[in-house]
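Narrative progress, year one. The postdoctoral researcher (J.K.) led the effort to move from monomer predictions toward full complexes, under supervision of the PI. The following entry was the first complex the group processed end to end, covering 701 residues in total.
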Amino acid sequence: MKEPSRSYEETILVIEPGRTEKNYWTDLWRYRELFLILAWRDVAVRYKQTVIGILWAILRPLLTMIVFTVLFGRIAKLPSDGQAPYALLVFAAMLPWTLFSNALSEASNSLINNANLIGKVYFPRLIIPTATLVTAFIDFLISFILLLGMMIYYQFVPGWPILYLPFFIVLALLASLGPGLWITALNVKYRDFRYVIPFVVQFGLYISPVGFSSNVIPEQWRLLYSLNPMVGVIDGFRWCILGGNSPIYMPGFLLSLAIIIFFLWLGISRFRKTEKTFADLI
Amino acid sequence: MPDIVIKAENLGKRYTIGHQRGRGEQTTFREVLIQNAGNLWNRSRDLFTGKPVIAGDTLEEVWALKDVNFEIERGEAVGIIGRNGAGKSTLLKILSRITEPTEGRVTIRGRVASLLEVGTGFHSELTGRENIYLNGTILGMTRNEIKKKFDDIVSFSGIEKYLDTPVKRYSSGMYVRLAFAVAAHLESEILIVDEVLAVGDAEFQKKCLGKMQEVATGQGRTVLFVSHDMAAIRNLCGRVILLLDGFISSDGDTDPVVDSYLRKITEKNLEPVEKRLSKYITSVSLSSGSGREYLSTEDSIIFTIEVDVFDKFIDHLRIGIGINHIAGARILTILSNNEGKSWHGISGKFEMHVTIDSPHLAPGTYRVKVALGDALGDFDTVEDALSFQVEPTDFFGTGKLPNSQQGVILARSTWVLKN
């Protein structure tokens, strides 16, 4: 045979029905630079043409936190976890909730927003929704600074559980990725799902233990309550940040974890199943 | 042994299209309700079983491509031609892995770069420099490759001064230059190019063609090139594949295939084309201002464009007609907005009548492109909407008939001898 004409070796590509299945995951790795640059683009573009720029990432959770603290802590007089200040209790939940809701909204609209790419170039489509998680994560990091400020203000020193925080951050991202993948795939064909997300996010804020501690839920309902996967994530965050004030309810946490894994599996398998038709539909 | 880099075997692509049942059949509110409920049930069932759902009551299967077989050797430059809807874009999309074939198989040896659009993924908020990295990565270059070629790309595009300006401030010409400059530096054994040269100014188009020629001949790379511009095809390609309704109609040396294609599309001459030409344009026809059956050099030309905007309202509707010489060069462009005409709230079916005062075209064959646009740009175009013949008449009033060898425009002249 002929020697390769360039420095890289010659690749042989076979295109036939069903073929892309076989080298999908290696392709995903080969396109990692695209993942990085798409994530970078989303971050770079996010706050262009805004006056206060990244302050939005602080302002939104901060204002919600103040409203919730007044509403649930002062007016409804719900108890905090142990000795923790109520504002800190709320903000420890605002962080994962904002991360989750941003990631979910961004991922769900990601394919539609990148329709021009999908029709014109090949790459594993999974890159698009996963790259949007990075934007949500950057916003998270910015509002995390606010948490540090609050800890100093309340003179609150977190214990060793804070070391587990990265695990729960990943968990919050995975919790949004599962439904996000499913909905973004459905969005390609049915734009109805675009309207589902704002609703889910708004609704979820009230049924998740953001403004209150999940300890206010009566003992016999806690397991059922943990069917909401964000309950496990938020409890985890509170445990990491507030330490012994806010112990984790284990059966509930495991249930939340199982739900997250189930949705992740569902999302990926739905996405993979419909992925091949995206270019024809979008 | 020939060195085959692309081999397509029995390639086929099927699309399923849904047709709405006629609305006239539903008379009562109850029937409408029952049908909608039925649709809703079917759709939600399909949704959860993961079956693709097609809107509409009856389904029709359309083969965009069928039984396509060809082999392309290393270093060949192959043109792909055919009317709108002949399957050219589908073929390119399969070769670039954007969509999967329904049947058959393609084997490709070497790295493929496809260029189906200029500036894929360009983001208007980002600067030229940032977009070079973004677009390059999207087209499949690595970061290091882009870094190495960055200076070449910038100098090819000629936009050094505006490198750190957001591309939304660029003129459309600069935008195209930058986008093509990135694409021109793709390092791949196989280059797939769709009609991207249709944009940009003439000088830059020439530069791009030159660059592609260099790619095709100089560096031993394989090029697949789709275009409606027969001049560009003749310039660049040694071999042409003609697609007709999804089949390969002919495949061979450029000149005979292009000639037979041009003969085929000119046969229709003044007859309107029956079927829908594009998404919204249903028909384009032409008549002579003199009322005669043929068009002479003196006559004004009347176009009738039938449009059916079935799914939206259009504001700032503009219509453009381009007349090309049969070889591909643009002779003239007529734009409604140049005449200060644009229309608002347009929807449904309408006919547009356009009269062009005698443009004094020389005898010969011309091809017509029609485009619909709004404030954002063109949203629907038909290349080769029709072609027409201009018959020679006694233009100069001297009995000398003009002929097609003397250019494309006729002009009367006055001659005075002084000594």
